[in-house]
Queue: 4 jobs
Job 1
Amino acid sequence: MPVKLVLGLQHGDEGKGRVVDDLVQSWADVVVRFQGGGNAGHTVYDRQGNKFVTHILPVGVLSANLINIISRGCVVDIEEFCQEVDDIEVSGSNLSVSGFCPIIEPTHKIIDRLKYQKKLGTTAKGIGPAYSDFYARDSILVKDIVDNPEQSLIKIQSKFFSLQEKRAQDGESLESLKPDFDLFNDWVLKYKEMSEILGFYRLSNENILQDYYKKGYNILLEGAQGSGLNIFSDNYPDVTSSAPSVGGALNSTGLSHKQIDEVIGVIKSYKTKVGSGAFPSIINDGQEKILADIGQEFGATTGRPRKCGWLDLDEVKHAVQQNGVDHLCVVKTDVMTHIKNPFFFVHGRKYSLTKINSVSSFDPGFAELLKQIEIHTGIKQISYTTGPKRGEIVWTN
């Protein structure tokens, strides 16, 4: 099966990165990050327990001899991109970024901080405003930066100064504006070098995935965030600004729905959430602290603590149906062994589970958890993790 798609089915932070990393070791030739921006970090632990974090880069860059692509559904902060390829020491031979990716401008970050960070709990990384400009057909794309760096910079500067002028007219003091001017000036000083680095990694053939598909390459599509954060979900406006869904993957990659052979949905054995919005299965009996501490529930990119709740099977079932999920992978199952009184949430209510003592199909509590997931989602193919490290996934056929 040459194309697999890995999606989060909750509110992000499900562990998609470690699932992708595991498939990279045994199966994938090409890894494609298809939506979102650098606000969506993926954390991976190798077999020795060493920790690695990617932000905008596909998880495949952590392994040698793979082709990695950032496709056009992503927005790219070119400063963070350049820093990340330097930190991970990525070569141009195994990473490309689509020329049609919109860039995140300094102005986008300022707007995000001023307008959306407190309102929606965003990371203030400029993701939403960058997508807003894209849909308004006013984006600067990666190819613009590479092909016409001077002209693109003029447009970027114009946007920045227009915003600062409006802020001053609205009564903000010059002193309050100064930090943003300092950051912008620093960004401009690095602009030429960043545009050259971007040119080095620019994708040379925008139809390359179809070529790889015809050649029989194993293509792994790596989602970020989760179905509950889909811009088109009922949780709007408490969502992200892209589509972490099958539809988002198709728009971004140029592959058709008939070319995707398997959709792997990733869920935690419990649920976490950051930002605003409803959270019906949230835990308030003290066990949420155990999940947060043992599960290390802090954002890979932001470090923000995540709210913890019981596994919400209403939410998972909805995501399974919308995305045509074939296969579920349940992660952080070992964390649940530390919970004395476990529950799951379905039909708007919470139900108790037998205590989980070990991650094994022979353990009554764990077997019950898997059975409830199967009953309420209709998915029979359920894999699961036994620990946080690379290779600690039990794959079912």
Job 2
Amino acid sequence: MAVVQITGDRPGSGKTSLAGALLLHRSETGRRAGYCKPLSETPGKDPDVSFVSEMLLAGSTGHPVPEPRPMPPLTGPGPALGTEQAGQIKSAVTQIEAEAGLVLVESPDLERPGGGASPIPLELASLLDSRVVLLFRYTSDLEAGAILTAGQPFGDRLAGIVVNGVTTYRGRDINQTLAAEVRAGGVPFLGSLPEDRAILAVTVRQIAGYLGGRWVQEPDQTDASIERFLIGGNIMDLGQTYFGRHSNQAVITRAARPDIQMASILAGTRCLVLTGGAEPTEYVKAEALQREVTLILVDGNTLDTAEALAGLLQQANTHTMQQIQRFLHLVRGHLDVNALTSAA
């Protein structure tokens, strides 16, 4: 029986994605595993817990996913976890471990939401006698020294390091130079995962909700994945050349530009975000309806809308089965998945 604790260096490192992928891997290979997110900023309505319970472990005969406890205030010099709260967490994880054999614990990050180091991951590791996988979100300034410093307090509990979201041209450097430096420091380097557009995708419904947009006509494909945005302006290339380069895209353009709208629709765009608040022409509506292209109307201008959508991409999560399956594909291709789930 074992407890594997997944801890990120900062928000958005990919803890839920990794935990979900490992849960799916165990299920597909006929082995059981449980999940616990012991602490949350939104207890009772945590989206990670809801997704795991309702999608990944739905129908499972194992112990249900417990509701997380409120995140304790990090104010005093003593332990962050009170005696009662620590006892509740220990009891919940012990019950899951007895039934499932393996528990994947999604820990708070090393960095507090407001900045500064958090003592909670180390306290949880000691409380649960867990082995810790540290997950670092790739940044251009990520260095082995910072990784080794972050991992040092965990001592022998540290199962290894994973770097997530590595850009295309830095994979070689991370997997050779950085990995060698981390291993030279006595810490296992379990591998890196490449940045992937499909995992960073958002849905058409999320776009409309985030922008406060209005449906031009009744949509059919609101759960369609959007992996990138293009601005439809005055371009020198042919419409098919410019708009046909990528799949699963949305185009942001003025509602008063039916020429751009038609070019993008005919090139396979999945969604049009029409700015300026005016209704598109009837023939654009008809073509979009026939080709199942969703039209979203917003009042702002094109540049402001594009800048706003950059914030939406930063909030992207993997709360769909399609994205978790894609993440598992990356894990299987780039990490030793069996070593991860047997880390404890």
Job 3
Amino acid sequence: VRVGEPIVEIDMRRLAAQRAGVAATLAEAEAAGIRAGVEADDADLDLVAIEAAAKAGSGVSDREVRRARTLAKSLRASVSAAEKRAEALVAELDLWDLRIADATLRAPFDGTVVEVHVEVGEWVSPGTPLVRLVSTGDIEVWLDLPERLMASLAGIVPSSGAGTGQIEVRAGGRSAVADRIRAVPRVNPGTRTFPLVATLGGEDAAGLSPGMSASAWIPVGELQSTLMVPKDSLVYRPAGVAVMTVAGRDEGGASVGGTAAMVPVKVLFESENDVAVEIAEGGLQPGAVVIVEGNERLFPGTPVSASIKAASDQRKKG
């Protein structure tokens, strides 16, 4: 369904009948107000005439003048009461119009109905769940971060609550870059974590659904250069993670020759295709040729003749 389209319609015949009753009562109240207004105008004219006769000494008693004044005031009060009664009925009529409008449940956003809680003809009351609607538009990814990182997010989430930075989110077997980020300044006292909300839209949200698990790489330190190697170059051994390099290589344009050497590495973080490793003395250095195919079967000292695989733009930038 699209936003604004009807999802559920409640039978409105009883509501319409009750509204019609209120509308009829309103018409009666308006008619009574008109009648009271005419009678009040007539009483005002009588009062003017009686007061004039009393002043002229025509034998009109003070009692008759008081009665005329009382009647005029009483009829004016009746006019005011009729007007207030009509206003109350107009407000009640507006309430019935609102109830009739609410009888049609419309989609608050683009989505898909994934669960129906009621059957046709079933009685419902205010608060009864009708359907479950899953958004097919923007998706919010809620991430729980340790409270100690709240101050470290200033670079991507300013104090205003919405940032212009970027984080890489992984969900549904793929990754996407989210640039709409906000932190919720509420720490869970049980887990000592706070939510970071990343919004994905368009193609980035395609294939994602509420309830899926997600993870993200979030920058919390200062911007700095980092040595990146392809994920395929990592070799997992009991002693730890390492990469196989070509030692004593013979530069040969599109290919190199030499012997395989195992270099232990410490993985700092991952991106979509590469991992960042720590640069340490005696460890992997920038410019080294790492083996990405067949490296699991190699042993240190094995002669190799490798062809150079062009690095992706992402790796060049790294």
Job 4
Amino acid sequence: MKKINRFRNEIKAELKQSSENKMAAYTGVIFVFVLAAVFLINLIVPDKSFSASENRMLQEFPSISVSNYFGGRLESKMESYVNDQFLMRGSFIKVKSAVDVTEGKLKANGVYRARDGYLIEDIVTPDQKTISSAETALKNLKAKYPKLNMTFLLAPNAGNIMSDKLPITVSMADQNKSIDDFYKNIKASGIKPIDVRKTFNKKKEDVQLYYRTDHHWTSDGAYLAYKAIVPALGAGMPMEFESKIVKNDFAGTMYSKSGFTGGRYDSIRINLPKNKKAAKPSVIYYGDTKKKTTKFYQLKNLDKKDAYTVFGGSNHPMYTVKTPTESNRRLLLIKDSYANSVIPMLAQHYREIVVVDPRYYFDNVDDLIASEGITDVLFLYNANTFFADDSLSIMLQE
């Protein structure tokens, strides 16, 4: 009888194992089928160029060329393309945020819920390879153009300057050390650092330097930066500007990204010259869209979700700003979106400003410097973007 029972148990065990193997096989087939379906759908569905919830441009399918491949740009852009264009990406982000909020977490999708209605993005841990490549590219650029006046403003993020607003249990990466090290290295290469941290820490109780719901600095923060940039460039004395509120219910990238609700909306202000008679009109030409305008501020965008695009519209690879100033100096501004709210003020000091965003610009910078008669170069980034992005070094190496 014992042998019969043991035999029955062995048969049951084999049947169970066989059933589990079949289930595993079925699951594997279904998984492969789902992956294949997602891949095919991703090929069919048109790429999206903009994420309204993140308020940023998405990576579209990159152009394939020999220079892109050997320069490393193709691999980087393909990785970004896959991440940005993944099927139902926005829905997955929303679900993740909703779960975090429901669980009562202080952090959702890399954003902390802080005091006084602030939503503060986590500080990026610098990618050492990215930083080293950028420093080498900058050093080589300065060596190639020793007579060009080169400056670099690396804007601190809200998590740095406004750290007193964070929950007491939160500890972020030391952004100040990263900025100090970077400034030390580029200064040794002959590039002048523009450090606004001392001014920002001094003024943060008097003016709102960063939006509560967005990762950008406000127009007040941009104005303080402008007053530091102009003398550092040797471009004369800063002009006096006054701010005007154009929107009172702005909910920016941190609001959309985190899913945190119940906070305080922001006001968007634009800076206008106090002495309108002394201000010179500018003409802005966008090469990618072939459009020309005299307006820095695109007020119609205030009704869009991405209302920050009131400052110059969406991101452009390259455009020019021409102003009939007494000075004949020409500035090459290599930047991220933090610069957008500074450009209208800087325009009063240069006959021409050539604005380049390395994330979307794929042409040769040397040709640009030569053809436009560049006299000054300003790099303007926020630290979080700069320490995580390799587009600057790739652009300068081409």
